[in-house]
């Protein structure tokens, strides 16, 4: 049976079990790598973190039944503080680190101290044994350098013109007015953008439908069941994933998260009139500044998009509230000490799974004022709450040695889409604000996101 979002009971059980499973996997990978002397060390002073046992976890079941993962984590944070260990049956343990003060080692520790372990084994059937976690660490680092080099700002410029062209061509097919599922439309568009940038216009022009179908089959393999049983052919989504991988040799890993962030950005803007108006006004000002309204042609789309500071912080605030990865997990290969904001010190033992719950760290109240509210101005020049909070206060794209190399590319894609939409259409959200589907490893807006549109007086970018 496939795991579905409609089953609250299975959702509660899966979230409880996944912590145990991830810890068990990490312990297996971490212990094999730990030096014998590290394994023998014990934490006498300072003490280990406070432990959340199974009895305490039972009190969280109501929130889990509602599918409210942030509320569950928030309860633990409020009760136990910024460092605590979840113990499953007293055997498997995962230590949670919340906030910038206790996150430095998690994000900056050396590979010999902090490791992914075997936690991402489930991605191997998706992407193949030749890339990512299907290869040894040295090869994976070299592959990472290749991607990082390709996505540096200087090289990113060459992708922006094709992005903008795909955006303009796609929305040119919309009528004067109508109703669309924003989630479906942006998924299609981002497939076109990534296909154009990664495969070329000629390939996508003849293979778009096939690529869309294959990608959906691979994306369907990203579910909780694939974490537990990544190789079994008994799960239908695993079989479809494997067949699609054999035919699709280029996997667009950025599409998954960029689509969701683009939809969340639209849903947030269309339910916050103040920031929607500010973003539209910024578009008008930039267009008039460059004289585009009089028919001039933009020759530097990269610079044009870089001027959109209001739109940038709107996207950034969306990512704070809806991070692509709600939690990042590592394995502690050696024990280490953390010091909390309150001055408490704890020793995290070697072999523990470490978890950084970004969905909570991005909402700590002593860094973010009214953290539950959508307020892009918190990143504006007069507040800059993330900078005031210090390093690792904002970790939607990870941090330290494990920062996402595609951050700038993702911002460019989303800016290219929403700058065009804001300039050229009046939009209205018809659906209720979407709930989060927490049954997916990459949480996404649940269901359709229906939007009505009406064309404005055209303000082109080229």
TrEMBL record:
<dbReference type="InterPro" id="IPR050529">
    <property type="entry name" value="CYP450_sterol_14alpha_dmase"/>
</dbReference>
<keyword id="KW-0479">Metal-binding</keyword>
<protein>
    <recommendedName>
        <fullName>Cytochrome P450</fullName>
    </recommendedName>
</protein>
<dbReference type="Pfam" id="PF00067">
    <property type="entry name" value="p450"/>
</dbReference>
<comment type="similarity">
    <text>Belongs to the cytochrome P450 family.</text>
</comment>
<dbReference type="GO" id="GO:0004497">
    <property type="term" value="F:monooxygenase activity"/>
</dbReference>
<keyword id="KW-0408">Iron</keyword>
<dbReference type="GO" id="GO:0020037">
    <property type="term" value="F:heme binding"/>
</dbReference>
<feature type="binding site" description="axial binding residue">
    <location>
        <position position="404"/>
    </location>
    <ligand>
        <name>heme</name>
    </ligand>
</feature>
<dbReference type="GO" id="GO:0005506">
    <property type="term" value="F:iron ion binding"/>
</dbReference>
<keyword id="KW-0349">Heme</keyword>
<dbReference type="InterPro" id="IPR001128">
    <property type="entry name" value="Cyt_P450"/>
</dbReference>
<dbReference type="GO" id="GO:0016705">
    <property type="term" value="F:oxidoreductase activity, acting on paired donors, with incorporation or reduction of molecular oxygen"/>
</dbReference>
<dbReference type="InterPro" id="IPR036396">
    <property type="entry name" value="Cyt_P450_sf"/>
</dbReference>
<dbReference type="InterPro" id="IPR002403">
    <property type="entry name" value="Cyt_P450_E_grp-IV"/>
</dbReference>
